[in-house]
Amino acid sequence: MKWLLLLLGLALIVAAGGGLIASIDLLTTEIGILYVTSSAIALAAGLVILSLAAIASRIDALRATILRQGEHARRDSEPTLAPLVVPHAAVEAAPTETAPAEAEPAGAPPLAAEGAPMEQAAPQPTTLVGRYTAGGANYSIFSDGSIEAETEQGAFHFASMNEFKAYVAAKRA
Predict the structure, then answer these.
(1) Who contacts 78 (Cβ-Cβ below 8 Å, separation ≥6)?
(2) pTM for the whole thing?
C-alpha cells in the first residue's frame, strides 16, 4: 500500500511539473492560467499523497515493533511462580519421645530400634493453594510445593518448583 501511495504521489508531482513548464508561454492566456492552477492542485495532491505514504510506512514499522514485543511478552508470560512459603506457625513440630540427653543431632534420620522396621510417616494431605493458567496450560499448586500441569502434551506432576523450572528450561532449549 505504501509503495502504491509513493508512486501515485510521485506521478502527481511529475505531472504538476510538466503542467507548470507547459504553462510558461501561455500565462497571458486563459488556458495558461488553467494549466498553472491545475499544476498547483496536482502538486499539492502529490505532496499530500507522499505524506500518506510516509505515515503508512511508519505505521508498518510500529506494527512490526508491537508484534515483536508481543512475542517477547508471550515467551515471558510463562509462569514464574515463587516457591511457597509456609508460615512458621503452620509448621507442626513432631513430639519427641527421647529424653533431652538422648536427642539426635539436627538433620539426622531418626534411629529405629534394632530389628524393628522404620515406620514411614503417613503422607500429609495436601491442599490446593492456587490455580493458574498461562501459555495455554493449567497449573495447580499444592501446599506441599508440588505442581500439576495440564498441557496439550498431557498432564505432568512436579514435586517442587525447582523440578518444574528445570522442565520449562529443558523445554525451551
Answers:
(1) 134, 135, 168
(2) 0.40
